[in-house]
Amino acid sequence: MQFGAYMFCTDYSIRPDDLARLLEERNFESMWVPEHSHIPASRQSPWPGGAELPREYWHTYDPFVALTAAAAVTTRLKLGTGICLMVERDPIATAKEVASLDQISNGRFIFGIGGGWNAEEMGNHGTNFRRRWRVMRERILAMKEIWTKDEAEFHGEFVDFDKMWAFPKPVQKPHPPIIMGGDAPTTFDRVVEYCDGWMPIGGRTSEGPSLSEKIALLKRQAEESGRDPDSISIGTFGTRPDPDLIGRMEDAGVERVVFALPSADREAVLPLLDQLGRFL
């Protein structure tokens, strides 16, 4: 079992490079940061986490800038987006950012992705909410071409480019692991087709099968699709540090647990990190 931590690193919280140092010193496996380019002031889309949206959602740093700062002051800590909103991003530019960060970190980047929940936010980027999964699929497939081919080419409905040269390539081969967030009815279709792992939010599961049952369903779907089930990693995001809970998750096949940290200054975060460090 590997243990990570995530935070909305903001202009008022502990600096991401400072946080990364503290996590590595306490033997955490990974550090994760989320992404929102902005939050539309209309607030029409309901937040899945509750009624009132926390202010860190519109104060968070760009994830690649934050993780580059973290990479510069660490040597072992893995660095993940949790999650990157590819439905709001240009695939050519993001492929360059991913490869650059993987190079600078010496192969420590983990590419967590998701479709997002804020229809107005992605609409500002030109993505229709109902088409977001089709958009994301093409963008990820196009990025894989860029990462793995000296002369990449892609022709789809939403992404279209002729042969191109785009370097650097990622250190990790064929590319950094792609981890799908979310827990929707068709999530496993996306995981099996073009991802390397699944990481739902702990404590925000949909109705229906338990986590262990869902993991079994995912493994079975992978096998039926001709894919090695063991090639898909399983993690949980925002899990509470409860030994019994984590023990059950490990028995179910969970390989990574990511704890949540508040968007707060160093004085507030340090005691929490010490508590989690003792827990680890």
Question: What do these coordinates show?
Answer:
Helix content is 37%, strand content 17%. With 280 residues, the protein is of the alpha/beta class. An 8-stranded parallel beta barrel has the order 1-2-3-5-8-9-10-11, surrounded by 4 helices. A two-stranded antiparallel ribbon has the order 6-7. α3 (91-104) links the parallel β4 (84-85) and β5. It is globular. The model has no long low-confidence stretch (mean pLDDT 96).
Strand order of the largest sheet: 1-2-3-5-8-9-10-11
What distance lies between the first and last C-alpha atoms, to the nearest angstrom?
10 Å
Number of domains: 1
What helical percentage do the residues reach? 25-40%
SS content category: alpha/beta
Order of helices and strands: EHEHEEHEHHEEEHEHEHEH
CATH-defined fold name = TIM Barrel
* Mean pLDDT metric: 96
Largest sheet: 8 strands, parallel, barrel
Oligomer: single chain
Number of strands: 11
CATH architecture designation:
Alpha-Beta Barrel
Number of helices in the DSSP assignment? 9
**What is the CATH class designation?**
Alpha Beta
